[in-house]
Structures are given as C-alpha cells and as structure tokens.
Fold this sequence. Notes:
Helix content is 40%, strand content 14%. By secondary structure, it is of the alpha/beta class. The chain has a single domain, classed as Response regulator (Rossmann fold), CATH 3.40.50. A five-stranded parallel beta sheet has the order 2-1-3-4-5, with helices on both faces.
Amino acid sequence: MTNLRTILLVDDDPNDVELTLEALSEINLANQVTVAQDGVEAMEYLRCEGKFKERKKENPAVIMLDIKMPKMDGLEVLHAIRNDEHFSKIPVVMMTSSHEESDLKKCYEFGTNAFVVKPVDSKEFIHAVKQVALFWALINELPKE
C-alpha cells in the first residue's frame, strides 16, 4: 500500500474529521488523507495553491465532501470540480448530516458519485467511512490523468 493516492477529506466539523481519520487508520489509510476545513481550502488543494502549492500535482483517489461548510459549501465545491476538466473525473462522495431531499437531488444533479448520510452513532459512522474508503480509494479504478 505504499503507492496509494490521497483521500481529500473536506469537513469543518473537528469531531467528524477525528472519527473519519480513526476509521481510515483502522484500514491503514489515515496516512494517505489530506484534510481541508472548508471548500476554499479544498479548491486550493486541488489547484496546488496556498499552503498546498508544493504538493505533488496528482488528483486524489476520492474526495469525501461535507455539504454545510463556511466560505464555500460542498455543493459549490462539487459544482466547481465537475466543471473543471482537470478534476471532473475524481470520485466525490458527499458525507453529510443533511437529510434534506433538496440537497440529495442537487448533489446528484451536480454529479456526485455517492451520497452518504452521516450516522449519529460513532460506531456506525466509522463503519460507513470504512466502507466508502475501501471502495472508492482501493477498489475503484480511475482513468489515467
């Protein structure tokens, strides 16, 4: 597992970030995760700007994206990703506490690959993250950049 591509985790809730990292460490993926705390930071990561300007120019294997965030919300990030030819093929999994039907519809209209409602129970949350990460980061094949 030395050549694994990064998972970009975009979430402003420190508790959800901590639980996600815990789940990913249990399947040996935690060292392959970059955390962005809002949509602006996520786009800076993808574009190798700001604090990410020195990173290797390689798209992440998957983006795990929350909807409700400051500065630039998850729907805006998803829309920007899908409208940029450099990022449009990156799998995006919406990991959100939103149960709103309008959010679900917009996410699929904007091109999300999956929509996962964050369980309230931390054990269920960790299980859900593991399942998402195993598929999208390890099993799913992406076209060459």
